[in-house]
Design goal:
Length: 339
Amino acid sequence: MTPEQLQTMVQTAGAARRFATPSAEHVSLGSGLRLVLFLLIWGAGALLGLFFGGVVGGVEVGMGGSFVGGIGGFVVGAYISRIVRVAAQWERAVVLRLGKYNRLSGPGVIFVFPVVDNVRFVDTRLLTLDIPHQQVITKDNVPVMVDGVLFFQVNDPERAVISVQDYRYAISQYAQASLRDVIGSMSLDALLSERDEIQERIGEAVEVRAKSWGIHIDSIRLLDINMPEDLKRMMSRQASAEREKRATITKAEGDRDAAVNLAMAAGTMAASPGAMQLRTLQSLDALGSSQSNTVVLAVPVEVLELARTYAQSKLAEVTTVDAPLPAAPVSPPAATPLP
């Protein structure tokens, strides 16, 4: 194995791992609100300890009460600040209480009690996953490298969280498997010419399975199809030969049409005695537009016409002389008188 092939395999494996690893979904919008609640409760606990300690035992007891109240406020504030969570407009929170599904909350402020509750935020916007380059064998045994992109949306967050371990990873793997199955059942020519049909077939195959996970497949698009270099060269030669064939056929058809038109023009000129003279004058006008051209008319057109008329008259005389004379009528023999 060459170093280039090894590097390609490492890059492909790294891309697959990045593709399979889910990215962070939740956007923490409640951190500022939790900090404010924590500080308020902490300060309120310290003030209450100072107040009650001062009332009961004076300044020294009040300072101790403030310290105790601060500790209590710190613990209570930390707990209460963990209760308040904020879900964005595009997020839904799946809340599990003691391991069982409890409710679906959001968007806005939600209350999640630590220790007893566990929450999973799900993004309901249109999500995108990259399908990395992977080698696929077509129906006619041609290896190709194909990559694409998958667009999907979570319609049912409850099923997406509960029915499948990691819906992003599951969708990615199922899309790659469907891509191999669909492309493996088609020839190379169909792969190159029917990309829209392939994308629809892959999307339909993934959609059938993704519905049970609460996920809707918007579309799957193929981005690039890489073939071996020798195959690319052969296809290039084939395309060049096909274009040369079309050019030869087009030129032959043009020559044929030109010959037909020239024959029609010759017939028209032969039928009209002045057509040839007009054509000659037109050619002289076209040549005379340039100062570098010098036209020498050796024989006038009238002389040519006179010669042709004389030739036609002589041909008519020869035809008349060579024609056979009409045969003389034969009279019947005279009757012989009987004796």
